[in-house]
Design a protein that fits this description.
Blueprint (H helix, E strand, L loop, with lengths): L1 H13 L2 E9 L18 E9 L3 H9 L8 H6 L4 E10 L3 H14 L21 E4 L6 H6 L4 E3 L8
Antiparallel strand pairs: 1-2, 1-3, 2-4, 3-5
């Protein structure tokens, strides 16, 4: 019975984790979210910190689809044809607290634009937002040096999850 529990636990661990989507917006855009309706989102790079405590592969595969039912804040951005996910940084099996740690890292250490308060983090109060903006692409080596368990995937490699 204990071996069944450990197999179930390890299966859940592999199918959960924390991720960072690197999204490139070719041009300015807007979203249909009441809180951000008056906001013009600038062209450039957006970094979204998310988590999936189950069904990680399905969540990431869904993020990559353009045609989907809008459910989360980030769906409003990833479904725009001129926006594309350039990479996914992934830490399999990581607990939800890493999501907050990464969001705070993007805001406080990398000093990325975090003016989209409460975007994608309505389920917690550990950070002001989970979406960050940068006119230029950030250097991922900082992220990987701090979080060695993270791997970087290019969207065409999604099957390797």
């Amino acid at each position: 019975m204990d071996s069944r529990r450990s197999k179930t636990r390890s299966k859940q661990t592999v199918n959960s984790g924390i991720y960072v989507l690197e999204i490139f917006a070719k041009k300015n855009f807007s979203v249909r979210i009441k809180r951000f309706a008056d906001r013009i989102f600038s062209a450039g790079y957006y970094y979204y910190v998310g988590s999936a405590q189950k069904n990680l592969k399905q969540r990431l595969t869904r993020h990559l689809k353009k045609n989907k039912i809008i459910h989360w804040h980030i769906d409003h951005i990833t479904s725009i044809n001129t926006n594309s996910i350039k990479s996914i940084s992934l830490s399999k099996g990581s607990k939800k607290n890493l999501e907050c740690e990464l969001a705070n890292y993007f805001e406080k250490k990398l000093k990325l634009d975090s003016s989209l308060h409460r975007f994608g983090n309505s389920d917690n109060n550990c950070s002001s937002t989970h979406l960050f903006y940068s006119k230029k692409k950030i250097d991922h080596s900082h992220l990987f040096s701090l979080y060695q368990s993270m791997v970087r995937l290019i969207p065409s490699d999604i099957d390797t999850l």
